[in-house]
Design goal:
Structural class: mainly alpha
Distance between the termini: 17 Å
Largest sheet: none
Number of strands: 0
Helix content: over 70%
Order of helices and strands: HHHHHHHH
Shape: globular
Number of domains: 1
C-alpha cells in the first residue's frame, strides 16, 4: 500500500516533529516534575487517546472528500501544505515565553488521564494539523484513503507514545532545566518552525508528481 520511500519520508518527518519539544511535551514534563513519572505517563496516555480521535476523524473526513471529488482532495492537500508553512512562520515569529508551561495542581492519575484526553479532543489545532499532515503521504491510487490515513495515524501515535514517554521518564532529572531554560525555548522555536516550513514546502512541491 505504501512504497518504501514514502514510508521512510513519513517516519523521518514524524520523528522530527515528535522529538521537537512543544507545549504538550512541556506539559508532560511539568506533570512528571510535580507528581512523578507515573503522572507524566498518565498524561502521555491521555493525550495519545485524544489524538486517536483526530486520526479517525481525519481518515473518515478525507476519505469522504475523495469520494466526492479527486480535485477537492488535491485542494485539501495543498491547503494542508500551506497551513504547515503558516504554522512554521508563526512559530518563528512568536515569543519564546509562550512555551513556558503553567504550574498545575496535583491530581489523581485517572483525572490526569481524562484531562489529557479531553484537552486533545477539544483542541482544534490538533484536528487541523492532522488534516494538513497526513494527506501529504496518501496516494489514492494505492488503495483506500481511509485505511492509509488510519495506518499512518496509528504509526504516528505509536511513535508519539514512545517519544513522549521518554520525556516523561527523563523529566525527573532534566525537566526543571527544560522548563525554565530560555536558550532551550528559543532553540525549540526555531527548530520547530523550520521543520513545519520544510515539510509544507516539500509536500507542496512533491504533490504534483504524486498525483500523476
Amino acid at each position: 500500500m505504501f512504497d518504501s520511500s514514502t514510508l521512510l519520508v513519513f517516519v523521518a518527518a514524524a520523528a522530527a516533529l515528535l522529538i521537537t519539544p512543544g507545549p504538550a511535551v512541556l506539559y508532560i514534563v511539568t506533570r512528571s516534575i510535580d507528581q512523578g513519572r507515573m503522572a507524566g505517563i498518565a498524561s502521555v496516555l491521555g493525550i495519545s487517546v485524544g489524538t486517536l480521535f483526530h486520526v479517525f476523524a481525519a481518515a473518515l473526513g478525507l476519505s469522504a472528500i475523495l469520494v466526492s471529488s479527486a480535485l477537492a482532495f488535491d485542494l485539501v492537500k495543498y491547503l494542508g501544505a500551506a497551513y504547515l508553512i503558516y504554522l512554521g512562520v508563526r512559530k518563528l515569529t512568536s515569543k519564546s515565553t509562550e512555551f513556558l508551561p503553567a504550574t498545575v495542581e496535583k491530581q489523581r492519575l485517572s483525572r490526569i488521564f481524562r484531562q489529557g484526553v479531553v484537552v486533545n479532543i477539544l483542541n482544534p489545532k490538533v484536528a487541523l494539523f492532522f488534516f494538513a499532515f497526513l494527506p501529504q503521504f496518501v496516494n489514492p491510487a494505492r488503495g483506500s484513503v481511509a485505511l492509509q490515513m488510519l495506518l499512518l495515524g496509528l504509526l504516528l501515535v505509536s511513535m508519539g507514545l514512545f517519544s513522549d514517554g521518554m520525556y516523561a521518564l527523563l523529566a525527573g532529572t532534566a525537566g526543571n532545566w527544560l522548563k525554565t531554560n530560555r536558550h532551550f525555548l528559543r532553540a525549540q522555536k526555531y527548530i520547530t518552525g523550520t521543520i513545519y516550513i520544510g515539510l509544507g514546502l516539500t509536500a507542496a512541491l512533491a504533490g504534483t508528481h504524486r498525483s500523476q
